[in-house]
Each structure stands twice: as structure tokens, then as C-alpha cells.
Amino acid sequence: MDRRGLAAMDPEAAFEALHDALTHGETALTVADVDWERFYPAFAMARPRPLLHDIPAVAALLAEERDGDGDMRARSDLAERLVALPAEEQQRTVLGLVRTHVAAVLGHSGPEGVQAGRSFRDLGFDSLTAVELRNRLSSATGVALPATLIFDYPNPNAIVEHLRRQLCGGEATFASALASVSDLEQEAEKAVVRFQGDPEQVDLAEITPVISRLKAVLAQYESLRASSTGTSGASSASSDLSSATASELIDIINQEFGSVSE
Hints:
Elements: E1 6-7, H1 11-23, E2 33-34, H2 36-43, H3 56-67, H4 72-83, H5 87-106, H6 120-123, H7 127-141, H8 149-152, H9 156-168, H10 174-197, H11 204-229, H12 233-242, H13 246-261
Helix pairs in contact: 2-7, 5-7, 5-9, 10-13, 11-12
């Protein structure tokens, strides 16, 4: 609980708060020692938590996030080093940085045990360690990264490609995009299997950001295809996607992105 930002309270302060609550007849009161910088990012990973937005510490965090929390000096120094390297060396350098921070977050003795193509879920990440990794990489690279980082980029290789594009100005390719979609497809298939075996094994709140991104991408693709063919496929696609199951979304990904690869 302490790692999540909920520290044990001082006994005297806790008893005083309890006494005040009972004395004044408070029936809907929560007293806690909360480190909002630790607690809120992990708590709000799946979706915003507007009931907490008026808390001054949370409002400050949200303002900082809007302004961009990357260290631009770190970004400039790292980008300068990377652009002087050939593509393969860029890949190796950024991968080494990502694996080092993944290992540190997970408590490994070194990056050797971090498999670059393995999903973060399989590596042992949860919402708390996901936010910690995001904060570490943002600080080390100067790139403002979302709290949903490991959902948007589900393994170290995917994060490496994203950081290289941000730092070196490289453009995404269909090959790298399809690789990321393939990783997401595998994760979705695992989730479906776990859900069918035991629904309690699947945290739907963690899947929501991924599904939302996929829906947005597919809606854009359908809109583009509709405009090129003169049809109105975007609205029907959006309607179909809003009620699609996880298995149906996997079929859609196979169908749509398979046609792109062809």
C-alpha cells in the first residue's frame, strides 16, 4: 500500500480524526494519508477520475501533465547522440535504455533478463509498475509519455520504436505498425482464453484503453476508405465496433490489417 501512495497513518492523528468524525456525526468521511503523486497516476490509468480532480495535489499533477512533464534537456542530449548513429545502433542504444529501466522497475539485477519481445503483462507489470516505468522513461528521454504507455506499446520493442520516432524524427512504417498490432492481437487472444476459463482473471479496466485506441484507429481507417470509395462506412463501422466483443475485435483486426499487409 505504501508503494501505491497510501501510507500507514500516525496513530494519534488517526484516533483524533476518528474522534472528530464521531463527535460531529460524519457518516460519509474518509481519512487517509495519500501521496497523490504516487496514487493518482496508477488509479487513473484506465480512465480519468474526475471526483478527485478538485484536490489541489491532483489538480497540480494534471496541469503538469498538460504542460508536458518531459525534461527537454535530457531529450536534446539523447536525440543528439542518437541522430549521429546508424539505425541499427540507434535501435540497440534505445533498447538498452528501455531494458535497463524495465529491469529496475521489476527489481532485476540487470537488463539481461528482460526479453524485448515479451509482453509487459507476461514480464510481471501491473498498473503501479506501469506508471513507474513511464515516469522513469519520461525522465530519462525527455519525451512526454502517456500513463497508458504499456497498453499503447505492449512490449519493450514497441516502446523502442516509439521513442526512436520521437527522438530521431523517423516515420512509422506499416511493418512496425503491423508488428504492434500482432502483439496486441496475441494479448487479446490470451485475455479471451483467460476470460472464458475464469472471468475474474481478466481486469477489463486494463483492457479498456487498448480497445478504445483500436476503435479510434479502425474508425479513422474506415473513414478514409469510405471517402476514397464514396461510401459511408465510418458510421456503420463505429456502430459495429461499439458493440463488438473481444473475439470479434480480433477478427476485425485480422481482416482489416491483413488487407493492409497484402
